[in-house]
Amino acid sequence: MVANSGAVLRGSMQLPGGHHGRWTAGPTGRAGVRRVRPGRCRAVAFPAVALHLYDTATRAVRTFEPLIAGEVSLYHCGVTVQGPPHIGHLRGAGIVYDVLRRWLEYAGYRVTQVRNVTDIDDRILIKAREAGEHWWELAARNERACAEAYRALNCLPVSIEPRATGHITQIIELIDRLIDADRAYAASGDVYFAVREQPGYGALSGQKLDEMNQGESEGQGKKDPADFTLWKGAKPGEPSWDSPWGPGRPGWHIECSAMARSYLGDEFDIHGGGLDLVFPHHENEAAQSHGAGLQFARYWMHSFWVTMAGEKMSKSLGNTLSVQAVTEKVRPIELRYYLVSVHYRSTIEYSPKALEDAARAFDRIESFLHRAADRVGPVQIGELPADFAAAMDDDLGVPRGLAVLHDHLRTGNTAMDAGRPEVVKAAADAMRAMLAVLGLDPWDPGWAPTARTTPSGPASGASRALETLISGLLEKRQIARSAKDFAAADAIRDQLSAAGIVVEDGPSGSIWSIER
After folding, report:
1. CATH code for the domain in which residue 182 is found
2. Staple partner for 171: which of 258, 387, 429, 467, CB 3.0–4.6 Å?
């Protein structure tokens, strides 16, 4: 190792018990070990740049330093299950934090990821009444739809996905603590948080107290319009739980504070969610948690919206696009590419053309990888390019990372045309490594239902049947060409072309791909 190279080398080593750990050695040559999951380590050289994340609370990009070395605790808000999820939900509640987790795990961290489900809420009760069904039935159905959508877009299973209704005891305990600390008060069966009693209220969102609107009605006994509800007294026909203040149900904000504390403790690393949650939801979470004496989140991350005609995609606005509807136009892996290709702190303005452009871009990537597998053998997850790692360390700079990936695509295509298999192999392996970090590896088992091939051959099921049929036709075409029956050979090629199959003839034979 060169002492003054300015690089950090990372690799793997055997740990006691058969586990593997990642070692990191800086310019001094001193190494430290962080335990990671077996099979995830590989030797790579990165610049000596730590992960930096934009923190909403400080309005600055900060160096990420976890509370516990080698571990990351992540809480991010999931969906209020009043209806089926749309692609805005999947970006803000799923994909952004899935990419963050994948990058942290690649770097060797053990990540505890908590994503909540809000399964009791005014909106759920209203929708259930309109549909003439039980509130819990509507909530459960939409929760299943969310789970299916996360799986469809290859989001890793979270560590725990707690429901608000499963944490009533913890919620009541936290409210009791706030009352004891003179940060909350009971009135007519409700409990409110006394906003003016909490120093620093408004710091997260940057709003002025007298200009805030909590978005809730004036409750009986509320002392200040700025105060917000912690516990809602029972109303006829609505679900309720017993509490020291009478039967009722929790307010929205207290649910997340209680669930985050239950699984991650009084202080944890990262709290995330969509931009629309900064106020009032996250502002109130922070206030009530600090009011109860908790340190709570050390970093706040917020992903921007998916919009249509300049308006945030929202069920209340009626301008949503369900995951199911979009994946009838493009494959799930292409939708994920579309949603990750824009930086998480930039808005995606949805349009059918932009979606189709993204699908075509990914198709070019995937087609190259399949052609590479046909020509040079199995494509493996190789080493990550240093430029890609630097982009990801810079506030999850996925667009810059994708630029690196497309540079490798151009290099690989040029090498394939020039008959340089070793360059093709290196480009393909590096591309697969980058795609894996983004959850876009086409050979990841998570994509099995929509995969075209394995890294070295056909996928199972329908893809295997298609491969068999096309291979048979290509074999007949080759026999015709060998017999100089070019009319028959051309007829087979035309037949395949009419079915959307592109055939490329090369020195090692013919390969096929599906035309978009």
Report:
1. 3.40.50.620
2. 258
